[in-house]
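Entry 14. Ran structure prediction on the chain below.
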Amino acid sequence: MTNLDTERNRQLLSTYGFHSLAPLLANPSDVRLDLNETTAGPDSYHAVVDVKGIQELESLLLSSKLCSIDTESDDKDPREGTLLGVAFSVKGGKAYFVPLIENDLKDLSRDDVLKFLKRIFDSDINFIGHNIKYDYLLLRRNGIRMKSIQFDTMLAAYDCHGDWDFFNLRDLAWRFLREKIKSYSDLVDEDGTFFDLPFTELVNHACQDVDVTIRLYPIFLAELSERNIIKQYYEHTMRLMMHLANLEFQGITVDRDKIDAIRRSLIKKASRLKDDICKKVGEVFDLDSEKDLSAVFKEALVVRGYLAPRKITMAILEQVAISEPIVRLVVQYKRLRSYIVRLESTSAAVTDGKIYPLFNQIKSRAGLLNTVKPSLFESDTSPELKSCFDSSVIDYFKDRQRSLDTLSQVTQDPVLQEVRASKSKVDVFMAEHAVMKDIDHDELLLSLATGQPDSMLSRAFLVDRLKVEMIRHDLGKRYQIMFQWLESYRRRAQANGYATIDGKRKYIDGLKSSDVARRERALEHAVRWLIRY
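Output, structure tokens:
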């Protein structure tokens, strides 16, 4: 038979947009299907495409207590992707891929494979994966629910190391196994999917991932044990992961009308602020236009030492706003507009009274949750907005009042305790201070507690460095007990390599780094983890 699976043929199909036909060029029979093959090593990857293979694989899996799995899809978003197949491994060096595309199957139908998958995932097998929440949601969207999820190597790596730049399988495979494997992005172009790959490549990629995952499992199990956080990992990290996985599938109840009412109120506020700015400037212009901003504030920027910048960034505006009252109003307007855009994104994501965000447990180095599409937890949220959401997620929002209460409890600072015990929870000293009276007191104190440098405080609160130094000095004296306790907490965290509170530990590798900047960031993350902010 003439070999159709050539680079030229695949390029032709891609050129004319026939991406889904590319896999048909590869002959599935070229993939080894014998489950009884005993060839050792990671080359023992097999496609299971017939009744006999399914039966043998099912027998193998059901006789195993532990199995790594990996789903393959045509989309990185499990809410959108089509399930192409599932890979399994019960022993390092051997793996099996079961496709769900009819063209890749022999005497099996897609329904036959789905029934097989339902039996397997409803069994007593303990499943492990890398970012297994993705697999859970993709499978559940296809009517398949994993009965027992045992372990996630991505989350284990995060709990053990905390602030690495990457926790993807490719990097972990190299770091711990010294093996180079290909990731999704290595195999698929930006505009492509796994449909564009020959079947053999899809099989090898899926099997490679489950093979590496099952070999990483004992390594991370040992690391968790060495760090004395196995119980914490299972009772907190994995339990939270399962809760989030169910929320991704079931959705979060949201009061869209309340969100839109808040948004309309803020739009009116932004409009009034915009009118005030134009009145002070003496002309009407578009504050959302970089061109208009440059034309209006060019002179002020030149005076401040900026040589007519091509693009007026928020950072530039914040620096100029320190000494220019009108620019200060512009910064306030832009911050308000940013919040409005966030509300609009959340509102647009609501379907039948629910939103279905994707949760991320590893993005925050401080152990805080993040979501995408929409983003919910990355900035502080007003109590009014929080009330729009189901109680199942309220605790995941940043909460300044909760964080300040935590600081009061752990530091036992008598001044802070007195403020937190008051009805207004307002520090009269800060409210009457010449520099601080017009600043958000809660945010300011939390920024100082987490160790923000003067440069960031200056930009955040639009005050010059001398005033920042005054604030730091005055609050340092007022909350002396709190800052002394935090300094001791940082020293212990740096010495141990982890932060701790109430028996829980937060490992952050940067705490023992020789890189001063990285170490300072890690210390900040340690405090943010402590106060959940």
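DSSP finds 24 helices and twelve strands in the chain. Will compare against last week's run tomorrow.
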